Amino acid sequence: MFAFVPGRRPALLASACLLPALIVSAPALLVSTSAFAQEATALPPVDVDSASTVDNVASAPLNGSTLTRDDIRKSGPATSDTGALITSLPGVSANGGGGFSSMPTVRGLSEQRLRIVVDNHPIDAACPNDMNSPLSYTDPQTIASIAVVPGVSPVSMGGDQIGGVISVDGPAPRFATDGKRLLTGEASAFYRSNGDGFGGALSLTMASDRLSATYTGSYTQAGNYTGGGDRGTVRSTEYAKTDHALALAAQTGAGLIELKGGYHFSPYEGFPNQYMDMTSNTSWFLNGRYRGMFDWGDVDFTASYRDTRHAMNFLADKLPGDMPMNTDVHSFASALKLQVPVTDLHTLRFGGDYHHQWLDDYWAPVAGSMMMGPNTFVNVNAAHRDRLGAFGEWESRWSPDLSTVVGVRYDRVAMNTGDVQAYGTNMMNMADVMAAAAFNAANRHRIDNNWSATALLSWAATDGVAFELGYAHKARSPNIYERYSWGRGSMASRMIGWYGDGNGYVGNIDLKPERADTVSAAMRLTGPGGLSFKLSPYYTRVHDYIDAAFVQNLTDMMGMPTGFVQLQFANQEAELYGMDASASVPLRTSKQGATTLTASASYLHGQNLSDGGPLYHQMPFEAKIGIDHSSGAFEAGADVAFVAAKDRVDITRNEPVTASYALVNLRLAYTLAGVKLSVEAENLFDNGYDLPLGGVSLGDYKATGVLRPVSGRGRSINVGLSAKF
Fold it and tell me: How far is it, in rounded angstroms, from Cα 214 to Cα 180?
């Protein structure tokens, strides 16, 4: 038996400690060469309310969508969950998780298949249940903008994904003008009646014309919420967290240099659709970025390091019991992007990036337990996942009305992990003992060579009419848990999986990378006064789609069936197709304000071509219609959301059927002396409904013995107060 020492760091990570030096020295090294001999141009000050987060793409794809800070403010104090916030965009849904960590899905492709960046930096998940998803480190109170580019995203926006890109930004650096000093910011607070949720945030910027410092901080807390109608309390939905960050920026003769560090802490977060809850999540990060604009082109260099320590056990609703589980993750990422205008009509972009993830996952023994002891259960032992990528992209403007973007990308993904061990060697642990022996004897080193390519054609046919046609071939390698989870015991396998279905999952060392071919189109019509209509059909075929194959029915300690199954990650074939539509119709416009009617609809069909059944976690048809009115300091709005019945379900996972439902929300706001008061009635009629992507309510199941889908939130009166200064 080998000795296990939790929390150790591989020698490779010593290089990550040089991050501050890299951030400072890399721009200096660049500008010291003869090619960079001239002085860089300072970037202009940024309007954080209208900034786009789609970097290094001269023309953001028509297929994408963006939420600005003003859009986020209009959503009111309804949520502390960024994943839920972006479901207002067509084609975006959210798989159920904790109160601030739902997992976004774009056109049926889940979070693990997306590239998600915060302030242009990736964040690695650090949990076998994906409880600390990348967006859980953000807060709607302090976000400046969110961009979503589904499917056919340019290769310059990143690789190792097949579903698209979600880019979230905090406040951009702001500088004073005319030699003055700048002091500006925003403060907010909220209360939600359902679950007694409350919190607040502060964003403060102090700047001269050359230096800028921005602090952002937020806190949010809530108890268990109540389901609509007569659903009662939904157990394991409480949470609390705080986030703090300090961003420094300097406009120099060499360009714009940014340094941002931050701290995140959540003492607890309940998960209604998991056996476990999060009992602690601590993470700190340091990001750096350099941007320079030269006569010959633009430079964008980023580097980041993040350390995360994550713990799971049972909160009050799932007691009695004890099963401590710990995960440590250390990540380093860097990227260099260059943009060179070859002629007035043609632009070349090229660059490379590196991403290192190191992960330990270990479960301490439980005193007095024959099953969970006497050893530490080593689930993942110092696994690493290293990705090295390079890309080239060519944008051409053939005429004022016609442009193309063509690019190719290569990513080399290398993965490996150490030996593992079960809790003990008695008969209760024999399935895991045998699985550990087989895993330790196997060759666990894997290298994937992934190629991606994108072609986009944009045509402005006439005033107010634009078309886009795109094709992409994208590839994604398995994550650490998909490849290296090994436990075959009932309990061990049920600790793996971010699906919220109660089933157990086993990894597969021999998984192949997913390869997706996507064809998409978009048509946008615009008219006077802000009239707009957009239609976006798409089709995706995924080869070696990572799904799950049946292994066995799971039984309890007495050998009785539990109603759950054990599955193993497996490569299969899949296709997804559908259509997103959105419209905005101005009903009234004046100097005092406007009245606007908005509508959107999304249809999705996901099919497993290997077994002939539906794919798991596919959102049924949904439609939304809303009206927004503003007149001076007064704002009002109402919207209705309709979701069809979910009757196409994955029988392999025993996915529950959910009924159709409609929700009505009302909101009012008034601004006086720079202070805005918002009041919202969420789910006005207190309709009872089940979340189509919420999974099964395991928190309620342990308490009641009744297995049902997770209920949606009932009526809540939300009050928000904010001030910009």
Answer: 17
Distance in angstroms (rounded) separating the CA atoms of residues 83 and 130: 13
Token look-up 């049926």 returns 108
CA distance linking residue 642 with residue 663, whole number of Å? 7
How high does pLDDT run on average in the chain? 91
Cβ 164 vs Cβ 106: under 8 Å: yes
pLDDT exceeds 50 at position 660:
yes
CA-only gyration radius of the chain, Å: 25
Q: Report the half-sphere exposure of 301 (CA within 13 A, side-chain side).
A: 20
d(CA 678, CA 637): 11
Residue 42 has pLDDT above 80, yes or no: no
Which residues neighbour 580 within 8 Å (Cβ) at sequence distance 6 or greater? 90, 91, 107, 534, 535, 536, 538, 600, 601, 602, 603
DSSP 578-641: EEEEEEEEEEEE-SSEEEEEEEEEEEEEEEETTTSSBPSS----EEEEEEEEEETTEEEEEEEE
pTM to 2 decimal places:
0.92
Q: How confident is the model at residue 55 (pLDDT cuts 50, 70, 90)?
A: low
Residue 593 pLDDT grade (very low, low, confident, very high; cuts 50, 70, 90): confident
Tokens of 377: 């259960």
Nearest to 222 by CA among 200, 197, 242, 246: 197
Could you give the domains of the chain? 11-724 (2.40.170.20)
H or E stretch at 17: none
323: confidence class by pLDDT, cuts 50, 70, 90: very high
Which SS3 state, helix, strand or coil, does residue 696 take?
A: strand
pLDDT digits (tens, 9 = 90+) for 128-139: 999 999 999 999
Q: What is the DSSP letter of 22?
A: H
Handedness of CA 153, 158, 160, 165 (dihedral sign): negative
Q: Which among 326, 329, 380, 335 is positioned nearest to 357, based on CA atoms? A: 329
| Interatomic CA distance for residues 496 and 481, integer angstroms | 8
